[in-house]
């Protein structure tokens, strides 16, 4: 069964319109949990961003989603390095506390990442982490992954110039996959998507779902976004959920969009498109995952580590 996405589109940033499809009632009554993959257009206005995120979460919950995924920079996307640092917060600051309250009130799990988290030595070095925060239905933080691969790229011909390491601390390690209502979720963020070692490590430790909240540039997204997400799904035989930023954040930056959900066979089962704020609602059928792994037992065929390091 090929699953279709359910997409909300937003004509005005503050008003999200929901388009009903013929199988919504079936999905809401399904025994399989539902995940909601969100797409938004963050700006430096933190309060406006929160209102959009809150609205998307409420709409997703009302349609039966048990876990909801927001993109990298859900809190804000600054227009300069100085503004990005100035707007950052500690993990138990205002933004995460408000989302934790919302998760508890609605009894839904949230994936929030990356969040601009002030580093442990903020007062002396003014550096931040890019952090992926998982909040459970009781409003408790159950996992925090700090992005390990930082986006330092100069694509002169394509007009892309970003140096994340100028103000961001690389995370020290991966974190174990988290048991959630939609399955065991492994955490990455954006540029981590380009490193299959990360996804394979998470799958080795039990991940059934990989998630990459992102803010891909238009140039890199057009060329690589879907193919990378599908590749990660195929090689790990996991579901892949990738919330995304879309459109113009300010005069200096725009994002590609196309928040995607991919099944373990590599089929795209949800796509928010490249223009609008919205949500793709997808059914997480773990029987599909186990059937894929049973019929093509790739992990059983994987050789010992020494085989792959034989050329070193």
- First-last Cα distance: 43 Å
Structural class: alpha/beta
Strand content: 25-35%
Mean of pLDDT: 91
- The number of helical runs is 10
Largest sheet: 10 strands, mixed
What is the rounded Rg? 19 Å
Family: Belongs to the carbon-nitrogen hydrolase superfamily. NIT1/NIT2 family.
Protein name: Deaminated glutathione amidase
EC number: 3.5.1.128
InterPro entries: C-N_Hydrolase, C-N_Hydrolase_sf, Nit1/2_C-N_Hydrolase, UPF0012_CS
List the helices and strands and how they pair.
Elements: E1 6-12, E2 15-18, H1 24-28, E3 34-40, H2 46-62, E4 65-70, H3 81-87, H4 94-106, E5 109-118, H5 122-125, E6 128-135, E7 141-146, E8 152-155, E9 160-163, E10 178-180, E11 183-187, H6 196-204, E12 209-211, H7 218-236, E13 239-242, E14 244-250, E15 253-256, E16 260-262, E17 268-271, E18 278-283, H8 286-295, H9 298-301, H10 305-308
Parallel strand pairs: 3-4, 3-14, 4-5, 11-12, 12-13
Antiparallel strand pairs: 1-2, 1-18, 3-18, 5-6, 6-7, 8-9, 10-11, 13-16, 14-15, 16-17
Helix pairs in contact: 2-4
């Amino acid at each position: 069964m090929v699953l279709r996405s359910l997409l909300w589109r937003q004509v005005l940033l503050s008003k999200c319109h929901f388009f009903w499809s013929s199988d919504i009632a079936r999905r809401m009554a399904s025994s399989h949990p539902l995940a909601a993959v969100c797409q938004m257009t963050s700006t430096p206005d933190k309060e406006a961003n929160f209102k959009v995120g809150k609205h998307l979460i409420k709409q997703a919950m009302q349609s039966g989603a048990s876990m909801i995924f927001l993109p990298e920079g859900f809190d804000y996307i600054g227009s300069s390095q100085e503004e990005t640092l100035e707007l950052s917060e500690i993990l138990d600051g205002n933004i995460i506390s408000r989302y934790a309250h919302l998760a508890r009130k609605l009894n839904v799990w949230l994936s929030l990442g990356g969040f601009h988290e002030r580093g442990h030595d903020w007062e002396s070095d003014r550096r931040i982490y890019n952090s992926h925060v998982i909040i459970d239905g009781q409003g408790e933080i159950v996992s925090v992954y700090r992005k390990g691969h930082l986006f330092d790229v100069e694509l002169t011909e394509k007009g892309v110039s970003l140096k994340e390491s100028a103000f961001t601390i690389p995370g020290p390690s991966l974190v174990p996959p988290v048991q959630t209502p939609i399955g065991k979720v492994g955490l990455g963020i954006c540029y981590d998507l380009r490193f299959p070692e990360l996804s394979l490590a998470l799958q080795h430790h039990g991940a059934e779902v990989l998630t990459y909240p992102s803010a891909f540039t238009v140039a890199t997204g057009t060329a690589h976004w879907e193919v990378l997400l599908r590749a990660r799904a195929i090689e790990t035989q996991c579901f892949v959920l990738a919330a995304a930023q879309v459109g113009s954040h300010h005069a200096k930056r725009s994002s590609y969009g196309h928040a995607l959900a991919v099944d373990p066979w590599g089929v795209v089962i949800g796509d928010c498109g490249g223009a609008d704020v919205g949500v793709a609602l997808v059914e997480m059928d773990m029987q599909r995952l186990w059937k894929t792994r049973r019929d093509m037992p790739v992990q059983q065929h994987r050789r010992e580590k020494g085989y792959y390091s034989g050329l070193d």
